[in-house]
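tool_call: predict_structure(chain=1)
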Amino acid sequence: MEDHKTDKTVLFQGIKTLIFAALSLLMGPVLLSFAFSKPDDKLYIPLLVIGCLICAFAIFLIFKGIKLIMNSMFKKK
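tool_result:
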């Protein structure tokens, strides 16, 4: 019978990744709302692009963080 233990360093790395994802989930929509509030401004397009990229990066970080947490718990050797 194998003894499965959680790899704590990988677990904390996954939690840290999810914290960065949460910060990105807050920052992306804020930038998008700034962009949509003044569509005639010269910073409309850059804020829109940066906000969309940050939102996409947050989704990527969520999947990466969950994968790291699952690998820490169910690691196959």
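agent: The mean pLDDT is 90. Proceeding to next step.
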